[in-house]
Design brief:
The chain has 394 residues and is mainly α. It is built from 16 helices and no strands. 83% of the residues lie in helices and 0% in strands. The chain is globular and about 60 Å long. The N and C termini lie far apart (47 Å). Its main location: membrane.
């Protein structure tokens, strides 16, 4: 326990220093995690945290519902309504375009089976806006751009996870049925997505009505924990999207629940509470990413990693520019530039890659390539997005 405390303290110190220097703290934590990963005194603890099952459970089952719920809780229906069409095209059309483009190009480069290539495509379709949103807010960019960035990421995480699960676990059945399999795959995709919407909607409405009957912010904070984790695990239990369920539940609680059942004190309390939880979650996730990256034998895959980075950037460009055609009035070209370069990959891609069955073809290569792209994304894109945004947007 002492080592865990010291790791946490070092992570907080690294975050505080990064904030003082006005650097994106996730990037600082990735680098710090990589440095600490080579210190022998932490070997025992590192081996525990970097166990594939432990890492996946920490990121997906513990932190993901909290991070998704906290972000959804803050988004207003009013802002989303203004940008709904743009977010829809980016999150649905853009994610699918990125998935297919990455799959085709990586299959051509690596000669992997199409299922394996599409699995990597699903991993590269999820974006992590933590660094980008903090930079946008610091620069004072247009509020709608920040809403689009965060709204797209919330929705596209759910879409990317659905695509990942369908590709990994249902590809053989879908492929064996030809065009009929595509119909089945599309129907399954809709079922999983709409099932998540239904679960999140019902749970969010129930929680909002419960909030109305109490004026005790400690109790209501606890109710919000039950809402986010309960909707997530209930949806996953019946094989629909837990991420989409949490997004919908958070949106309903943050808007309808706030309007009918939260006192001003409760609103302030719940925002501070989830800000703190999300901050701790992000600190530990990116720290773990840094620890994990340093153990990978990346040098054996340099050629493929460089190809994967180029393909990831190209696919993101296709996703943004193609999916938003016809939205010129809502999406200035400068915003598209920012969204393309700001489509960072993060801990979700890594956790999903590590959740692949041990017998899955090219599993090790997929994990290494994912780490390579995430590292480039967080360090290179993350450190330059602020400067580029000043040139493009401000």
């Amino acid at each position: 326990m002492g080592y865990i405390l010291w790791l946490f303290i070092m992570a907080l110190v690294g975050t505080a220093v990064a904030k003082k220097l006005k650097l994106p703290y996730p990037i600082a934590l990735v680098i710090l995690g990589g440095i600490i990963g080579v210190i022998p005194i932490f070997n025992e603890l590192k081996l525990y945290f970097l166990d594939e099952e432990v890492f996946r459970n920490i990121v997906i089952d513990i932190f993901l519902p909290a991070l998704i719920g906290e972000a959804a809780l803050k988004l207003s229906f009013k802002d989303l309504k203004v940008n709904a069409l743009t977010i829809f095209f980016l999150a649905i059309g853009g994610t699918i375009l990125s998935f297919i483009t990455t799959g085709i190009l990586i299959a051509f480069i690596t000669k992997w089976p199409f299922q394996v290539a599409l699995t990597f495509g699903a991993l590269m379709s999820a974006t992590d806006p933590v660094s980008v949103i903090s930079i946008f807010k610091g620069l004072g960019v247009n509020k709608n751009l920040a809403v689009i960035t965060e709204g797209e990421s919330l929705a596209n995480d759910g879409v990317a996870i659905v695509l990942f699960k369908l590709t990994v676990y249902s590809f053989a059945l879908i492929a064996s049925l030809g065009w009929g399999g595509l119909v089945i795959g599309f129907v399954e995709f809709i079922k999983v997505a709409l099932g998540g919407v239904a679960i999140g909607g019902v749970c969010g409405l129930i929680a909002s009505r419960v909030f109305r009957r109490f004026d005790d912010y400690t109790l209501e904070n606890s109710f919000s924990i039950a809402l986010f984790y309960g909707s997530y695990f209930l949806a996953e239990h019946i094989h629909v999207s837990g991420v989409i369920a949490v997004v919908v539940a958070g949106l309903i609680l943050g808007n309808y629940g706030r309007a009918i059942g939260m006192s001003e004190k409760t609103q302030q309390s719940i925002e501070v509470f989830w800000d703190t939880i999300a901050f701790i979650g992000n600190v530990l996730i990116f720290y773990l990413v840094g620890l994990e990256i340093q153990k990978m034998n990346i040098q054996d895959y340099w050629g493929y990693i460089i190809a994967a980075i180029v393909i990831s950037l190209l696919s993101r460009s296709v996703a943004v520019y193609v999916s938003t055609l016809g939205l010129k009035s809502k999406m200035p070209i400068s915003w598209k530039h920012a969204l393309t370069w700001g489509g960072l990959k993060g801990s979700l891609s890594i956790a999903l890659a590590m959740s692949l069955p041990s017998a899955f073809p090219q599993r090790e290569a997929i994990v290494v390539l994912t780490f390579g792209v995430v590292l480039f994304s967080l360090v290179i894109q993350g450190l330059t997005i602020g400067w580029l945004t000043r040139r493009w947007v401000i």
